Amino acid sequence: MLLNGSPSAGKSTLATAVQAMAQRPIFHRSLDHFLAGYPLQWRQDDSSLFGKVMTGYVHSLAALVRAGCDVVAEAVITPDRVPLYRDALREIPVLLVGVRCGLEIAKAREAERTDRTQLELDVPWFETVHGVPYDAEVDTTNDPPVEPLAAQLLDLFEDPPERRAFTRLLAGA
Questions:
Q1: How much is the pLDDT for 144?
Q2: pLDDT band at 19 (very low <50, low <70, confident <90, very high)
Q3: Alpha-carbon distance 108 to 112, whole Å?
Q4: Which of 46, 148, 152, 158 holds its CA 20 to 30 A away from the CA of 164?
Q5: What is the DSSP letter of 137?
Q6: Which of 111, 110, 89 is nearest to 169 (CA)?
Q7: Cβ atoms 70, 27 nearer than 8 A
């Protein structure tokens, strides 16, 4: 399951809640987890590093699923990243979930973060991250209780749609 949305939309909170509520092991990772493998100095100084880590991250998700793991992962699928996700996850049964929140809420959450250098969230980028089809969408704007949202996602895990949104993404829709 890929939770796709802007930074600070609530993807990590949802993924952690899905793990906590699941009756089986579900692996959770985000690109932030992978980037944290490098000291901040290298993340700021080496612009090519992000692309390398991003590619490794997405391909590692596919490897985990092929190994038999259930995975809930975070994604920020901007238009330029769609080919990476298509190529890496082509043979994987992916569930795509849109995680949305209002721009001002995302900016406020981003300003409060201490786990990375804050990002500048601009409106065009904020909207284009949702240019892919979804199997389900959730909105975290008003900080709703996370448990019902996580339960909704677990239900999707247990009873996925017959035709998945990722199949449409592979077809170019």
A1: 79
A2: very high
A3: 7
A4: 148
A5: E
A6: 89
A7: yes
Q: How many CB atoms lie within 10 A of CB 37?
A: 10
DSSP string, 34-92: HHTTS-HHHHHH-HHHHHHHHHHHHHHHHHHHHTT--EEEEE---GGGHHHHHHHHTTS
Portion of the chain with pLDDT greater than 90, in percent: 62
Strands 136-139 vs 71-75: parallel, antiparallel or unpaired: unpaired
Q: Are 39 and 116 in contact (CB under 8 A)?
A: no
- The Cα–Cα gap between 32 and 160 comes to 27
- 3-state DSSP call for residue 16? helix
User: Which domain range does residue 12 map to?
Assistant: 2-170
Residue at 56: amino acid letter: G
pTM: 0.89
In the structure, what pLDDT confidence band is assigned to residue 70 with cuts at 50, 70 and 90?
A: very high
What domain count does the chain have? 1
Let me know the angle formed at the C-alpha of 56 by 171 and 63, rounded to the nearest 5 degrees. 70
CATH number of residue 77's parent domain: 3.40.50.300
Q: At what angle do helices 47-66 and 82-89 cross, to 10 degrees?
A: 30
pLDDT digits (tens, 9 = 90+) for 99-132: 999 888 887 777 776 655 556 656 557 778 999 9
Mean pLDDT computed over 145-165: 93
